[in-house]
Design brief:
4-stranded antiparallel β-sheet, 8 helices
Length: 196
């Protein structure tokens, strides 16, 4: 655990894309506090609480240290499904971070034979939900042998698919943004496009 969140956040800020630079000082401070609470919970062997704090830190100020610790804490808490889902973010975001990739690869290797891996793609920017909860990323694991509702929300509307499979399988789901609604304006005889 020896990585200070403040150091990790500062390092990520230097090399991060513009979106990360837009984080407010209050978010970074709250993330540092959450990371410190996660560290304290982890050292007290309260891994479930530690995972929650590290995920909060990651949500507020995404960086490899918070993600790595969230994966580790979920693994220690016995939540291989969540650890694996978080780990699927690492190759896309932190491929050059050896420690994060080592932790992520272990979690993915543990989750893969136990769960169904779902890979989603969207024709334009979308938000993915699984069974009514925000997925947070376009790849994740779900329980096998059950139907799961995967919904993509676009500016123009939503699209959804039911996904199921056996443990160890991968399902790929592609979503196209719904066409923008066309509204007829009364009295004007013209059309106006909606959706924005």
């Amino acid at each position: 655990l020896g990585v200070s969140f403040a150091l990790a956040a500062a390092t990520c800020t230097v090399f991060a894309p513009a979106a990360a630079l837009a984080q407010s000082a209050a978010d970074r401070e709250a993330a540092a506090t959450a990371f410190d609470r996660g560290t304290a919970s982890y050292l007290a062997h309260d891994y479930t609480r530690a995972a929650q704090w590290f995920e909060t830190a990651y949500r507020l100020a995404p960086n490899s240290a918070a993600l790595t610790q969230a994966i580790r804490a979920n693994t220690r808490a016995g939540n291989a499904l969540r650890a694996g889902s978080l780990a699927l973010r690492a190759p896309a975001l932190y491929a050059d971070d050896d420690a994060t990739m080592r932790t992520a690869n272990e979690a993915i290797a543990t989750a893969t034979p136990l769960y169904v891996r779902v890979e989603t793609t969207c024709s334009s920017t979308c938000t993915i939900e699984v069974d009514g909860s925000l997925a947070g990323f376009d790849s994740f694991f779900v329980e096998p042998g059950a139907d799961h509702t995967v919904r993509a929300s676009f500016d123009s509307g939503t699209a959804e698919e039911i996904v199921s499979g056996a443990a160890g399988e991968t399902r790929t789901v592609s979503f196209d943004a719904p066409a923008a609604e066309v509204a007829v304006v009364e009295g004007g005889g013209g059309e106006e496009t909606g959706g924005g």
